[in-house]
Amino acid sequence: MTDFFKDIAPVTYAGPDSTDPMAFHHYNPDEMLGGKALKDHLRFAIAYWHSFAWEGGDPFGGQTFERPWYPQDDMGRAKQKADTAFEMFRILGVPYFCFHDADVRPEGGSFAENTSRLDEMTDYFAGKMETTGTKLLWGTANMFSHRRYMSGASTNPDPDVFAFAAATVKSCMDATQKLGGENYVLWGGREGYETLINTDMGRELDHMGRFLNMVVDYKHKIGFKGTILVEPKPQEPSKHQYDYDAATCFGFLQKYGLENEVKLNLEQGHAILAGHSFEHEIATAAALGVLGSIDMNRNDYQSGWDTDQFPNNVPEVALAYYHILKAGGFDTGGTNFDAKLRRQSLDAEDLIASHIGGMDVCARGLKAAHAMLADGGLEEALEDRYAGWDTPAAKAMLNSDLGSIAARVAKDNINPTPRSGRQEILENYINRFV
């Protein structure tokens, strides 16, 4: 126990009529939906980095938070931070958490010191996890913050940086394996370039592909049963990111023979930066067979950068979960809150309330998505719109050739009349559920 969250009781479900800001109004973890409890549909996780390691800075200003485990350069305070984190997991009743190595241990003066500190914190986490029952959704390595990675990790022009990154990923995979993590994520935060003037793109892509193959090989070597995930993100921080969006990542996986080994961890905020909706990215990954897990947050649509705010838009969230449920739901993946407080939100209560709101929004969105699928209105509209493709002539056409098709169009005097896409009617339909 710590006193950071003193006087904050465990959060319970109070129902939609409650006005208690520190209670769940829509998320009842044991509520059954389609034969599965909400907690098993959503598989919530808390992001260690935003909730405990982030100090409240932004591109225009520094630290605003004052936490008892600051400065984060001491192993004693690292354990105090862990004590506080697991207290928060208990208060919220979340089943999972996620972390980068740099979130949980202070930076050392060498790879060996980093690894020793990570091993010590891994052992400390193991005891906490056994006591609380909280599990690890995924682990990852921070290969973007330290200055050594300013020109990338696996794509760095310096082979020593590639080596340091590879060794770091090994240590983080070992930690994830030891803690029973269900996935391992690679986010190429600086795997990209600012200008082609000083960049050999082909070489960098080949190195990134080889690096990821090494990760997959090591997964099998140590018997890791979880899923390897890659997280797409465009533009920020590199001007041109190699992992721009779901489709780009899938093309990369295909090129390097990894499409059956690696899936995607998709983030709402990154989808928006790529010019997509979140449901587009989810539907794309599902169609390509690489949907793995999600980071749930939102961006401020008046800002041009990744603001990582907690979700509060039920219609957006409902469409995201609609495509997740349509694809069969999560396997090893889940809903990680890669979201952070506003830098003016200083209190411990703010940290709990932000997650309560996000969990309620996700629960409402999931219930709406499930109701839409059960009703079948969108599926019926899709079947009707594409019904022509179920005819024998249309099926035969796909196995034909241009000459035969042209002859049939001329013989049968085919002259199609456009049909309405009925977008507004379907949008009105969705609004009945959200």
Protein architecture, described:
The structure is a single chain. The chain is of the alpha/beta class. 46% of the residues lie in helices and 10% in strands. It is built from 16 helices and twelve strands. The protein has helices spanning 38-42, 48-53, 75-92, 101-104, 111-132, 159-178, 201-222, 246-255, 268-273, 278-288, 314-326, 348-375, 377-385, 392-397, 402-411, 423-431, and strands at 32-33, 36-37, 44-47, 96-100, 135-140, 183-186, 192-193, 227-230, 240-241, 262-267, 291-295, 335-337. The strands form three sheets. It has an eight-stranded parallel barrel with strand order 3-4-5-6-8-10-11-12, surrounded by five helices. A two-stranded antiparallel sheet has the order 1-2. The longest helix has 28 residues, at 348-375. The protein is globular. 42% of the residues are buried. The mean pLDDT is 96.
